[in-house]
Amino acid sequence: MPAPAALPAHARVTSLDGLRGVAACAVVAFHFFYAFAPTPFLYAERPPFGLFRTPLAFFWNGDFAVAVFFVLSGFVLAASAPRSLAEAPIMIGLRYLRLGVPALISSILAWAWLTGFPHAASGAQAISGSRWFRWTYQPPIPPLSQAMWEGGIGVFLQGTTRFNNPLWTMQAEFFGSLLIYGSYALLRGRVRPWAMAAGLVGFGVAELYFLMAFCGGALIYERRGQLGERRLAGALLAVAGLVLGATFPAPAAGPDLAAQIFARLGADGVREIGAMFLVAAVLMTAPLRALFESAPLQKIGELSFPIYLVHVPLIVAPASAIFVALSPMSPLGLAALFAGTCAAALALAVVFLIAVERPVLAGLKALRRRVRARLAAP
């Protein structure tokens, strides 16, 4: 299997699609269990040692999954960057549509679920005590017009919405797009990787960690030719990435330096470095690429953005209503509810993929082709 470094500059790296799909599933698990079994997710309640303090937490660490999303976005944006300064504003506008149209429709969907189950979230919060529900509207549910405003425009301005709370990342994605597209429109050749490295350090110092992740993804894209096929190094890098990023931070077990360092694993900044390590490791390691290129993970990867957009409305509305009706729930009952929520999220994501995601991508591809043809014309 050839390493991605050997691929043409704009070839799609399908293994990263599979990684994105796994990250989307981790976000679903994170939100579900944070809603209905929140205690292990509370920093103050988390013991210094335990399952949440291991790389296995990758499968339910939503914060790390989002960091992976941002690194992957930096990589993809660098690959699709504007070819000229004149093209940059148009590409940024298309990027807004790519994010905004699905976000708008998901916000309308969330409004419909919340309107249909207006008291489900507050009832579930009363039982589980999860603070996560504070990011969801409680009755009276605002009107559809507000859902449309927040999903299509407001979330990009304010960075938050209580109709569908994962949409907070849309602002980060758009700012990251401005950063990468703007930088690549102004800079050329060998300057780009140096600029991305400087951004990686500078944004980290400024504690703008999401922009740090975007720069890291773009830097990986620029240096993909130097990664090569290094299985052992890639495997070690993947483990290091999971240890640094997927581990949940916790209060230090003691005052000594080792305990203080261990407590910082998975914290802001460290988490983004771990995500960069993991993405680079996939590019370097054939067995990892083969895993993420497998047919099931490729399908999940195609559904990753729809899954991300539709799963929270399901959790805060019908899943919460079932949780309230059947409480107190046994661990087996909660596991069954989780399985049902995942199945419903996959089914709804397929509908979203066919009805929204594919038409939006096809329309934007046609627009991009037309714009580039017009700019290239004498």
Automatic annotation (TrEMBL):
Keywords: Membrane, Transmembrane, Transmembrane helix. InterPro entries: Acyl_transf_3_dom (IPR002656), Acyltransferase_3 (IPR050879). Pfam families: Acyl_transf_3. Residues 14-349 form the Acyltransferase domain. The keyword Cell division does not apply. The keyword Ligase does not apply. The chain crosses the membrane at residues 21-44, 64-84, 96-114, 194-220, 232-253, 273-292, 304-326, 332-356. GO terms for molecular function: acyltransferase activity, transferring groups other than amino-acyl groups. PANTHER family: ACETYLTRANSFERASE (PTHR23028), PUTATIVE (AFU_ORTHOLOGUE AFUA_4G08520)-RELATED (PTHR23028:SF134). This is Peptidoglycan/LPS O-acetylase OafA/YrhL. It comes from Ancylobacter tetraedralis. The lineage of its organism: Bacteria, Pseudomonadati, Pseudomonadota, Alphaproteobacteria, Hyphomicrobiales.
